[in-house]
Amino acid sequence: MEELLVLLKYIVLGALQGFTEPIPISSSGHLVIAQELFGLEMRTDDFTFEILMNFASLLAVLLIYRKDLMRLASNSVAYFKGKTDETRRDFQFVVYLVIATIPAGIIGLLFEDTIASVFKSSKTVAVALIVTGVALFFIRNLKGRKQDGDLTWKDALIVGLAQAVALIPGVSRSGATIVAAMGLGMKQETALRFSFLLFIPISVGLILVKLPELALGDMWFPYSLAFLFSFGFSYFALKWFMNIMAKGNLIYFTIYCLVVGFGFLLLG
């Protein structure tokens, strides 16, 4: 019975992390809330769970944006052989992704443990969710004009700084970057694509840095189940979120973040 409960716990944690990672409600924040409310605690003696959950979400993003990635890679190489408007646009887009990766990369390497220890409380998560909800409310109806070829290095840097803020548990990475991107005048489609392609280098970096900590041991089966559920729910959630964005229904996430944030402040 105890083994079954362990499996169920990791299935729930994997599904929860997978579903909340792509949408603007903070996966890290919901894991904190779930652990406090339901006692769903994971092992803390290694980073295996974190690595596998990140890898699962990364695979989902790679699968969904595979055509964009192939085009960007192909045109970036072609840019050095013969410059055209299309190859220049895609090469610049890749450069801007690199620029946007720098803030969170540096801050994460230097201060991630400090940020996690200082801000990892249910009240901090609740406040962060409220702030996320308010931010989403203000950009919910924006119809930007900037497309891929209209971005600047300043746009990339600001979105990158927003991603760095999302190191605080409760601040959604996708929410912070999409709010920043749309606030800068990007079209919804461009903001969404830039946000999730920006997830790739950050996720790969995290996996590479913490890979030496990977230790499945006797937890290989629970972790494997969590990985599969995280991948499936990440894929579904991202597809669903893309549809929500296309219909201009970000208000749903505003309401959710405010209800959960204020609710947890009152009950916590």
Q: What can you tell me about this protein's structure?
A:
By secondary structure, this protein is mainly α. It has one domain. 77% of the residues lie in helices and 0% in strands. The chain contains eleven helices and no strands. Helix 3 packs parallel to helix 10 and helix 5 runs parallel beside helix 7. The protein starts with a helix and ends with a helix. Its main location: membrane. It holds the Pfam family BacA.
Backbone structural class:
mainly alpha
Largest sheet: none
Mean pLDDT: 87
Distance between the termini: 30 Å
Query: SSE string, helix = H, strand = E?
Result: HHHHHHHHHHH
Strand content: under 5%
Regions with little confidence, pLDDT below 50 for 5+ residues: none
- The portion of residues assigned to helices is over 70%
